[in-house]
Every structure is written in structure tokens, then in C-alpha cells.
Amino acid sequence: MTTSVASSPHMRIGYLISTFVDKAAFAALTCIFAI
């Protein structure tokens, strides 16, 4: 799986976007619960 992701730039970009979205959603939830 790691090799296929590394060899395909589109998969890599999608992975980065999904990771960023996950971090943003986690940060938003943390802020909501912190308030």
C-alpha cells in the first residue's frame, strides 16, 4: 500500500488532503469541547 501511494502522485495528494481534513476536524472538535 505504501509503495502504491508513493508511486502515484494523485493518491499522495488525496492522502495529504484527507490527513489535513482529519486534523482540521479534530482541531475543530477540540475547540468546541474546550469552550
What does this entry look like structurally?
This protein has 2 helices and no strands. The protein has one domain (2-34). Helices cover 91% and strands 0% of the residues. By secondary structure, the protein is an all-alpha fold. The radius of gyration is 14 Å and the shape is rod-shaped. The chain crosses the membrane at residues 12-34. Keywords: Membrane, Transmembrane, Transmembrane helix.
Concise synopsis of the structure shown:
This protein is mainly alpha-helical and 35 residues long. It has two helices and no strands.
Layout of SSEs?
Elements: H1 2-7, H2 9-34
Distance between the termini: 39 Å
Q: Please state the structural category.
A: mainly alpha
Strand content: under 5%
Reported for the largest beta sheet, the result is:
none
**Integer-rounded radius of gyration:** 14 Å
Q: For the residues shown, what is the average pLDDT?
A: 81
Low-confidence stretches: none
The tally of domains stands at 1
Globally, the shape reads rod-shaped
| Number of DSSP strand runs | 0
List keywords for this structure.
single chain; 35 residues; transmembrane helix; transmembrane; 91% helix; 0% strand; membrane; mainly alpha; 2 helices
